[in-house]
Amino acid sequence: MKRNKFDVLSLGFILFLVNQLIVSALAATLLFSVRSASQAQTVWNNKQCAVVLTYDDAIDIDLDNVVPALDSVKLRGTFYLIGSSPVVAKRLAEWRRAAQRGHELGNHALMHPCDGSLPGRGFVTPDNDLSKYTITRAISEIRTNNVLLNAIDGKNARTFAYPCGDLQIGGVKFYDQLQNDFVAARGVTGGLQQVSQIDLTNINSYMINGQTGTQLIDLVKKAQQSGTLLVFLFHGVGGGHGFNVDLKAHRQLLRYLKAHEQSIWVAPMVEVAEKVKLAQQSGSIKSTIK
Question: Do 79 and 70 form a contact (C-beta atoms < 8 A)?
């Protein structure tokens, strides 16, 4: 079958248009990626990514091992304190000095209640069973802990960390009534997040237990490559808790962060969350949280 000149020209024109559309789409995608990366870097204090070092439960190891290690390389972390912990009462002056050096004292509730109705929660005592709490009691205890923390560090802006990562009481998210009390809340779900993906009511974190220094550093490298937020969740550092990381591994991580501080923003959770909140509220970063 013969094609006339008009058919050939029409086909050529169509192919030209398709090619132009593809080129335009690729250019738009590239421009969006560049803008997104640029916006993320602005939020990350003009660095490639952000890393937050968090330490839970107010244990002796925090003051004996962690604070000295952070101070030695001039890095700052967030310590989530349980108000009823004897380590808070006995070493209050040391916590105050840590806060004066720039570490955040975060709120990990007054009694650290966990949902005892969930599988594997045999360690939960009747007095501290979140499933037996009322919303009013949970909120009251968390706010009481804020008063205690303010008495230690004199600060009003801080973040919250869910004990055991439990978000609900009877199917109700209790933190919904606390959003004006905190800048943000840290959860326990692992994952790196772009600025637009961060849910300030439940920020992702990687719970650390037994990882090597290389494995910890690999997580940081992934954050650098993707321009994301990485939150570490530590308990024991060199002992002191069932969830533990070796002192050497922790030291290797800190040294890597210090050696790459030109491209990695390491800051307490409250400072990072404040920047994210501002970006999301201003519209410079469109949140994808539903």
Answer: no
For residue 280 the two structure tokens come to: 């999301």
pTM summary value: 0.86
CA 73: distance to chain centroid? 21
Give the model's pLDDT for residue 31.
Answer: 39
pLDDT tens-digit series, residues 112-161: 999 999 999 999 999 999 999 999 999 999 999 999 999 999 999 999 99
d(CA 166, CA 156) in angstroms, rounded, equals: 24
Give the 3-state secondary structure of residue 172: strand
Could you give the residue ranges of the DSSP H alpha helices within 91-206?
A: 92-100, 135-153
Residues 253, 230: Cα–Cα separation, whole Å: 13
2: DSSP letter: P
* Gap between the Cα atoms of 140 and 130, Å rounded: 13
Measured over the CA atoms of residue 39, residue 42, residue 44 and residue 47, the dihedral's sign is positive
Provide the token pair at 211.
Answer: 């990882």
Give me Rg for the CA atoms of the chain: 24
| Strand 236-237 with 244-245, pairing | parallel
Q: Which domains does the chain have, with CATH numbers?
A: 34-282 (3.20.20.370)
